[in-house]
Amino acid sequence: MIRNTLIIGSIFTLTVSVLFFIHVSNDHKECDAIVKKHLDANGKKVEVVEHTCKENNSI
To answer: What number of other Cβ atoms are within 10 A of residue 22's Cβ?
Structure first.
């Protein structure tokens, strides 16, 4: 019984640790959306959204 509790506790602790590491090391916080507005050939307003990121690692 104690052994099962230790195994479940270890798995839970490892899972929480991994999720915390992923949350802290997430570099999508450096992403930005750049909105460019201009007129096209027909004179209509066009809005272009560019997604830019400064990621070091992309997995």
So the answer is: 9
